[in-house]
Specification:
The structure is a single chain. The protein is globular, with a radius of gyration of 24 Å. The two termini are about 40 Å apart. The C terminus is likely disordered. Helices cover about 45% and strands about 10% of the residues. It is of the alpha/beta class and about 375 residues long. Helix 1 crosses helix 2, helix 8 packs across helix 10 and helix 13 packs across helix 14. The protein has 16 helices and eight strands. The structure holds adenosine-5'-diphosphate (ADP) and magnesium ion. The site of adenosine-5'-diphosphate has 20 residues, from helix 2, helix 8 and helix 10.
Length: about 375
């Protein structure tokens, strides 16, 4: 039996595809802007925003790769530095990473920001170049009152040479920047990547299946099925996870091609990437209700009767040593979560109770947040069913 996978690693989130389908106009335009500036020896800055899985990271990394190549016609290649700020949300940590990219390895402690900037300046001066600094997931950094973005937008004046910036974030970060930095990101310096629609996702899944799978192991209508499944989220990462899981399922079943049934089998087990920021503002009761819903929905179900969720909630309260709220408050909490766009409520119809659903099941994130908020009470282990 021939294998379904040809190059499974190309479905890995860290794999950068050689091209981005359905993003070419934006890509060429952006490339042109940076190249024109580089040819003149001046910096140019851009902020890219877009939802989860809209291809922001892939766009930024492809751009860095492309700009590092010498363009035809006597233009200049740029030297790119990519930093993901998600886990490095202070100026010091980002600077440590930038220093590594100019070959300076400082210990984690012992240097202040001004000193590190000096060392960076020396490093950059030793190897003069048009640089592109990509700060991905920059939201976490700018919320910490970062000075770094400001300093980098003023690179010429602070002696860093021509440093162009590419900031990437799911949402607009300009409100968190000082007025001077904001002025570097006027309307022509912003790019919003729209959510992928079903047709975009069909092309993306088809293209990525072509890289990863043996020819003939997936039919166009199965590609279509996956695209339709992911379309409400517009999340390419989710679509590719479904593709990979369905391909794995088909392979394990000894099939020579992915059938619609293989896709159906995985669709209940995978969830789009959850925006954890949404959870941070919730109170204890809201978190408990959500966790109860998430646990009730585990498995292939997408909706559960409200009564069952309330039972699970009561059991959870017992486990955490908390008094459950009344039925009325429970319902009000559910409605509040619906307004936040976290929970879906199917109203009761004659003979059918109301049902609750949540498209994304962040069980781990919820458990983590709850435990952080209820430090004194260790949860009683879940009763075995
Ligand atoms: N236009 C595209 N063509 C091919 N693959 C894409 C495209 N857009 C996104 N992808 C893939 O989808 C996944 C999610 O994209 P990513 O750039 O990580 O999204 P974001 O950073 O916006 O959350 C990655 O595996 C990426 O390679
Ligand atoms: Mg990303």
């Amino acid at each position: 039996m021939p294998s379904i996978f040809l190059a499974e690693e190309t479905l890995d989130p860290s794999f950068l595809p050689p091209k981005l389908v359905r993003r070419d106009p934006e890509f060429q335009r952006t490339l042109g802007r940076y190249r024109t500036a580089a040819a003149k020896g001046i910096p140019w800055h851009l902020l890219i925003t877009g939802g989860i899985g809209s291809g922001k990271t892939a766009f930024g990394r492809r751009l860095a790769q492309e700009l590092a190549r010498p363009p035809g016609g006597g233009g200049k290649a740029m030297v790119p530095h990519y930093v993901n700020c998600w886990r490095r949300s202070t100026d010091r940590l980002v600077l440590l990473e930038l220093l590594r990219s100019v070959g300076v390895y400082l210990p984690d402690k012992g240097y202040g920001v001004p000193e590190m900037l000096d060392i960076l300046e020396q490093g950059m001066r030793k190897a003069p170049a048009q640089r592109l600094v990509v700060l991905d997931e920059v939201g976490a950094l700018v919320r910490q009152e970062s000075r770094l973005v400001y300093l980098l937008t003023r690179s010429g004046e602070v002696g860093l040479g021509a440093v162009s910036l590419l900031l990437i974030a799911p949402e607009d970060v300009l409100p968190f920047l000082d007025a001077a930095s904001r002025s570097s990101f006027g309307v022509t310096h912003r790019l919003e990547l729209p959510k992928y629609d079903a047709e975009d996702l069909r092309e993306i899944v088809g293209y990525r299946a072509g890289l990863a799978l043996r020819r003939g192991s997936i039919d166009p209508d199965v590609v279509e099925q996956i695209a339709e499944l992911a379309a409400p989220t517009g999340d390419a990462r989710f679509a590719l996870e479904v593709l990979q899981a369905a391909a794995t399922g088909a392979e394990e079943a000894g099939a020579s091609r992915i059938s619609p049934e293989h896709v159906r089998a995985v669709q209940g087990t995978l969830r789009p990437t959850f925006d954890e920021v949404k959870l941070e503002g919730l109170d204890e009761t809201q978190l408990m209700v959500l966790l109860a819903l998430a646990r009730t929905l585990r498995g292939p179900e997408t909706r559960a009767p409200t009564g069952r969720v309330r039972q699970a909630y009561a059991a959870l309260c017992e486990g955490y040593g908390r008094r459950p709220v009344s039925r009325v408050t429970f319902w009000r909490t559910v409605r509040g979560l619906e307004l936040e766009g976290i929970v879906k409520v199917d109203p009761a119809r004659p003979g059918k109770p109301s049902r609750l659903g949540m498209d994304e099941l962040p069980v781990q994130a919820l458990t983590g947040l709850l435990e952080a908020r209820l430090p004194s009470t260790a949860p009683v282990p879940e009763r075995r069913r």
